[in-house]
């Protein structure tokens, strides 16, 4: 067997492709990962990416794609944006899948920083598979920077969802807020609920809107059946007849974001969707724990209504964090009916 | 010569195409108009649309396109979304151009409601050309509803431009506002200045930002050399050394939107670009005279900074006008660098 420690030009090209594939995935409990199966002749035999928690990892997806195309992956090279995992979660360890598939070589970008899943390259080498790491590592790390941050901090990955008028209001002067956005945007918001382990709102929102927080209208792609937990944060008691009550309901009687995240993490929540209201949104933003933001903007003006992000503590323009349009899972800017959705991620640590 | 008063299926299809072409144009002093030259055999010989004030009308553009393609328009049918004009403005009368080109028939959608330009169909019939009106008229009228409203009211067509944070703020708490949006969005804003006959800001903006209001960075497409007038509205005196002063400067010492529009219209302004600040923007919105809005949204949050539309007088969500994404001149939602531009038009009168 020939062993090279450097990547070939075909492998470099495949890694660029794998990074593009990775960005098609859905942010959340798991990192974005893409994979390409490269034949001995440099031909692409199959490709895949991870579509979100509960779905196959990128490597098995790429192997399945190769087989569907009638390509035998034996003796081929797996080019993947993250070190293959070595643990059994909702899916089996990728290291074993690659060994069983008879791969000759694995080229990965970033090392796996997830303690429970790490050790994949070591396992592959022990099985006699040629392993090279580091190609495209910077791009892979940048793609999953916020996921790594949440993992290192031992807290859930946090998605913030907000629906507002063009002028940044979540309610009119008289408090009316249903509905600022149209049915298409609201259906997409429900789809987000189905992707997370838990949904969180403030106790003020429960009193104002009495939401059920279920994942109605989800379209089923990469979706868990429903959010496992429906959490209400705040010291105000939740009424006995609140619609949010029932199996999966959790009251977090605290105003501290860190306390709420600790409690949820301890209960196994790895991806949290925060839906507001505005005081909750600002609290999570101030704490610096919002890893992505879906902002639905309706083309209307509410003038002096309730602001989407009160008391943010931003005094000067130079202090405001410039978020970035995020194309993971689809275009960063998209139209939903009459409304516009911005998908944003916080500034990269590398920029600041 | 055969004469039909009803449109043929080929003419109906051509009118649909002409309406799509019309929407590629630029809103402003002139209506959106598209045209298709249809051969005797039903083949499209040429097509065109009006690219904005100072550029050829749709019919000459379509004739020029036909000739460029090597197609002789003699004996052909002109299908156009607005009755051909009969007056000499910055371009000659289209009626004469169609007669000279030897057209056999003209099918138009809406009648020309502009007193000075009307009478085109009459002139064509007098020259022996078969004329049919009304096909696709509703769509054509809807496309130019706000232009017609401005024309009927004897006031300029008003474009409002605004640059704001995601949460609808035009400045941070300490007043800093330069620059909320990035260079690409600002360059596009300068391009808008070049399309209008006049640019207007409030006297407060002059004191705060001391803008020049020139059309720097314009890309030259359908652009007049520079806005003819740079108007400052408000009773506060404009400093002698203000950058906005010089040839083309005009002070409108009033807080009344109607007075300002009358004065500008009297000076020949048919397309006005209003740039703010926020009090001016709200005043024009309250007056119901904003015919289109370009809103540049920067993906950052400014919390409690200056609102983009203060004192709008909207008390309840049901009172807020739902604007519509406007695809005229390009997609209604577009990315400019790190920012997003929404191009919006007010609700159609037909909706309310």
Automatic annotation (TrEMBL), chains A, B:
* Binding-site residues for substrate, renumbered to this chain: 177, 193, 213, 216, 275
Know the name of this protein? Riboflavin biosynthesis protein RibD
Tell me, which GO biological process terms does this entry list? Answer: riboflavin biosynthetic process
Gene Ontology molecular-function annotations: 5-amino-6-(5-phosphoribosylamino)uracil reductase activity; diaminohydroxyphosphoribosylaminopyrimidine deaminase activity; zinc ion binding
Q: Indicate the family of this protein.
A: In the N-terminal section; belongs to the cytidine and deoxycytidylate deaminase family.
Q: Does the keyword NAD apply?
A: no
Annotated keywords: Hydrolase, Metal-binding, Multifunctional enzyme, NADP, Oxidoreductase, Riboflavin biosynthesis, Zinc
Catalytic positions?
Answer: 59
Metal-binding recorded as keyword: yes
Question: What's this chain's function?
Answer: Converts 2,5-diamino-6-(ribosylamino)-4(3h)-pyrimidinone 5'-phosphate into 5-amino-6-(ribosylamino)-2,4(1h,3h)-pyrimidinedione 5'-phosphate.
What is the top-level taxon of the source organism? Answer: Bacteria
Q: Which cofactor does it need?
A: Zn(2+)
Question: Any idea of its EC number?
Answer: 3.5.4.26, 1.1.1.193
| Residues binding Zn(2+), per UniProt | 57, 85, 94
Q: Which InterPro entries match?
A: APOBEC/CMP_deaminase_Zn-bd, CMP_dCMP_dom, Cytidine_deaminase-like, DHFR-like_dom_sf, Eubact_RibD, RibDG_C, Riboflavin_Biosynth_HTPR
Detail which positions bind NADP(+): 163, 179, 205, 209, 277-283
Q: Which residues form the CMP/dCMP-type deaminase domain?
A: 9-131
- Catalysed reaction equations from the record: 5-amino-6-(5-phospho-D-ribitylamino)uracil + NADP(+) = 5-amino-6-(5-phospho-D-ribosylamino)uracil + NADPH + H(+); 2,5-diamino-6-hydroxy-4-(5-phosphoribosylamino)-pyrimidine + H2O + H(+) = 5-amino-6-(5-phospho-D-ribosylamino)uracil + NH4(+)
Q: Explain how, and how many, cofactor molecules are bound.
A: Binds 1 zinc ion.
Q: Give the pathway.
A: Cofactor biosynthesis; riboflavin biosynthesis; 5-amino-6-(D-ribitylamino)uracil from GTP: step 2/4; Cofactor biosynthesis; riboflavin biosynthesis; 5-amino-6-(D-ribitylamino)uracil from GTP: step 3/4
């Amino acid at each position: 067997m020939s062993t090279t420690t450097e990547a070939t030009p075909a492998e470099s090209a495949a890694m660029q492709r794998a990074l593009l594939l990775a960005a098609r995935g859905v942010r959340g409990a798991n990192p974005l990962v893409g994979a390409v199966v490269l034949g001995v002749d440099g031909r692409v035999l199959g490709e895949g990416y991870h579509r979100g928690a509960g779905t196959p990892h990128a490597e098995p997806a790429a192997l399945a794609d190769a087989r569907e195309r009638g390509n035998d992956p034996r003796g081929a090279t797996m080019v993947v944006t993250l070190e293959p995992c070595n643990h059994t979660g909702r899916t089996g360890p990728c290291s074993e899948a690659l060994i069983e598939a008879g791969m000759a070589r694995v080229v990965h970008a970033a090392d796996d920083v997830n303690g429970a899943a790490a050790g994949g390259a070591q396992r592959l080498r022990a099985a006699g598979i040629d392993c090279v790491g580091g190609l495209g590592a910077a791009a892979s790390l940048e793609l999953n920077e916020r996921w790594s941050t949440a993992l290192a901090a031992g807290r859930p990955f946090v998605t913030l969802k907000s629906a507002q008028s063009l002028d940044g209001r979540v309610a009119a002067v008289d408090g009316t807020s249903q509905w600022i956005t149209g049915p298409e945007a609201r259906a997409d918001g429900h789809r987000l609920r189905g992707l997370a382990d838990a949904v969180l709102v403030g106790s003020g929102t429960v009193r104002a809107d009495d939401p059920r927080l279920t994942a109605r209208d989800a379209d089923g792609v990469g979706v868990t059946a429903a959010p496992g937990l429906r959490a209400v944060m705040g010291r105000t008691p939740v009424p006995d007849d609140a619609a949010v009550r029932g199996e999966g309901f959790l009251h977090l009687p605290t105003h501290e974001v860190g306390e709420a995240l600790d409690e949820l993490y301890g209960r196994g929540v790895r991806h949290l969707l925060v839906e507001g209201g505005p005081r909750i949104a600002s609290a999570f933003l101030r704490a610096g724990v919002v890893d992505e933001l879906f902002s639905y903007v309706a083309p209307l003006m509410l003038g002096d209504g309730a602001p989407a992000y009160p008391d943010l503590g931003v005094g000067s323009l130079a202090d405001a964090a410039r978020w970035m349009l995020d194309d993971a899972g689809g275009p960063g800017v998209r139209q939903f009916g009459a409304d516009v959705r911005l998908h944003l991620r916080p500034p990269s640590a590398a920029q600041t």
